[in-house]
Amino acid sequence: MKRQLSRSDCMIQQFDAALRSLVPHAAKPQRNDPASKLEEMAFDGHQRRHTAGLMRVNHLIGVANQGLYQGQSATAALPHARGQMEQSASEAFDHMAWCDARLRQLNSRTSYFTPLFYASAFGVGAASGLASDRLSLGMIGATRELAGKHYQDQQKQLIAGDQRSHALLRQMASDEAHQAHLAIESGGMRFIAPVKWIMRFIAQGLTKGAYYL
Predict the structure, then answer these.
(1) Which of 97, 100, 101, 105 lies closest to 48 in space, CA to CA?
(2) Dihedral of the CA atoms 58, 63, 65, 66 (nearest 10)?
(3) Most exposed: 70, 136, 168, 213, by fewest CB within 10 Å?
(4) Cα–Cα distance between 142 and 188 in angstroms, integer?
(5) How many CA atoms within 13 Å lie on the side-chain side of 204?
(6) Residue 38: closest CA among 138, 143, 125, 167
(7) Dihedral, CA of residue 164, residue 166, residue 171 and residue 172, to nearest 10
(8) What is the reported pTM?
């Protein structure tokens, strides 16, 4: 039987999650890197910068998702909803760690916007959790669906011979689709298409600068 966490336990857990999200190289994946056994391609300078820019955006998406889930889990009322958010957060840590490792392989860094995105997403998550678990789970479903489509689209922007980045994005897209389905099956609200379009438009605008910064 899972032990009931006290308020102090929850605060420590939230602080630990924030540190692992914000401190470079602190996030450790629970699963093996899907690109670890693949050969690295020979990049020229432009190709390396382009790939690093894409991975920087993806890392920031993982950070924002982590902030969202931590905010939601802090205010979720139902145990099954909190459990779903913890599972989503665990996969987000894997994605952050994989992208961070890929950036190091490319001799690059994470985005300067990382703290801002985490704090903003945490606030949105906490607010949705206070509103209702159904809204929180629906937001997980919608954000993960949009993230999965982003990773699928981004594969077209990768350098053709970059097997490592392609492997990462394929696995991340698969994870997002799976978690989006689970969130809705757990009772999440189904967002209508116009809401998803607005969310995608806002996300694209916010993350665009991370490609460079």
Answers:
(1) 105
(2) 140
(3) 213
(4) 9
(5) 12
(6) 167
(7) 110
(8) 0.86
Question: Distance (Å, rounded) from C-alpha 94 to C-alpha 201?
Answer: 25
Residue count (the chain)? 213
Average pLDDT by stretches of 10, the chain with 213 residues: 56 74 80 87 91 93 86 71 67 88 93 90 84 82 88 91 93 89 82 83 80 87
Structure tokens at 149: 């489509």
Residue with tokens 């602080």: 15
Which residue carries 């689209």 as its tokens? 153
Residue 191 DSSP symbol: -
Q: What is the largest CA-CA distance in the chain?
A: 54
Q: Helix-strand-coil percent breakdown of the chain, rounded to 5?
A: 75, 0, 25
Spatial neighbors of 64 by CB under 8 A, at least 6 apart, are 117, 118, 120, 121
Residue whose structure tokens are 């987000």: 92
Measured CA angle at 33 (ends 176, 69), to 5 deg: 40
Residues in CB range of 126: below 8 A, 6 or more apart: 71, 72, 74, 75
Tokens at residue 156, please? 């077209």
